[in-house]
Every structure is written in structure tokens, then in C-alpha cells.
Amino acid sequence: MKNNHVFIEKLRSSGLRPTKQRIEICKLLFDRKDTFHFSISDLENNLENLSNKKISLATIYNTIHAFREKGYLKEISINSDKTYFDTNTSDHHHFFDESKKKLIDLNDNDLGKIKIKKILPGKKIKSVEVLVRITNDK
After folding, report:
1. Same domain, 10 and 44
2. Residues 72, 63: contact at Cβ < 8 Å?
3. Which whole number is the average pLDDT over 1-5?
4. Cα–Cα distance between 129 and 106 in angstroms, integer?
5. Domain check: are 80 and 14 in the same one?
6. Residue 28: CA atoms inside 13 Å, Cβ hemisphere, count?
7. Do β-strands 131-134 and 102-106 pair in parallel, antiparallel, or remain unpaired?
């Protein structure tokens, strides 16, 4: 379990004032052993279940987007109207379970070699991240 001073530093380095609500958001996101994938609405629901106090949606949005801009979170767009965030900011692949609306990490060894044949003039590949959509078999 991390101390609040770690969260306060993370907030300040993101340009945010460390309020009690934002520290609660930090605890939920970063005080864990495993990667956390979430949408804004998932996060809002988790925060409501853990806390007796309501944290405004604006505070949640501002905090998440400040963390994304600082590089503490990765944004993963599933489609034009659904975005998830990931506390694991390294380059890695995902399954997206369409029936459960859940992201699941894929390790490099879960995927074969990926070869990109197209080259765009004046551009270089920064990273390759695969999103594999899955659904129920029936």
C-alpha cells in the first residue's frame, strides 16, 4: 500500500491540486499490484462503491486526462464512442471481450511475430499494439 505522499507527488506533477477526491482516485488507480483497465464510467462506479462521498464526474475526467497527458495512463480507443484507460503504460497488446466490455492484457509471447510491410515516407513506426476483439462463441 502506497503512502499518500506518492499520490500527492503524482497529482502535483500532473498539474493538479491534491484534493481528498483526487487522492482517492489515485489510490484506486495506482495502489494495486495488477494492471487496471477502466472506462470513465467504470471508474465512477468503483469510486462510488468504495467511498461514502460522491466525486464529481468533472473531477474524474480532469484527473484521468491530466494523468494521461503526463504519461501515467494509456488511452485505448475501442471505437468512436468508447475509450478505456490502462495503468500499464508500456507497449503491449489486448483482448477486448465485447460481451463483457472488458480489456485483458496479452503478453508478447501470446502473439507471433508481426511484420509491417507498408512504409510511409517521412514516418517511422513508434509502436505496434494489437487489439483482438473476442465475443461469446454462441
Report:
1. yes
2. no
3. 78
4. 10
5. yes
6. 23
7. unpaired
The pLDDT tens digits for 29-77 are: 999 999 999 999 999 999 998 877 789 999 999 999 999 999 999 999 9
- Asked if 47 and 60 count as a contact pair (C-beta separation under 8 A), the reply is yes
- The terminus-to-terminus CA distance of the chain in angstroms comes to 42
Domain CATH for 28: 1.10.10.10
Tell me which residue range forms the domain holding 117: 90-134
Place of cell 495503468: 87
Residue 48's DSSP bridge partners are none
Among residues 59, 101, 60, the alpha carbon closest in space to that of 81 is found at 101
- What is the 3-state secondary structure of 80-101? CCEEEEECCCCCCEEEEECCCC
CA dist., res. 103 & res. 133, Å (int): 9
Please, which pLDDT band fits residue 1 given cuts at 50, 70 and 90? Answer: low
Q: Label residue 11 exposed, middle or buried (CB < 10 Å: 0-12, 13-18, 19+).
A: buried
pLDDT digits (tens, 9 = 90+) for 73-99: 999 999 878 899 999 999 999 999 999
Counting the structural domains of the chain, the total is 2
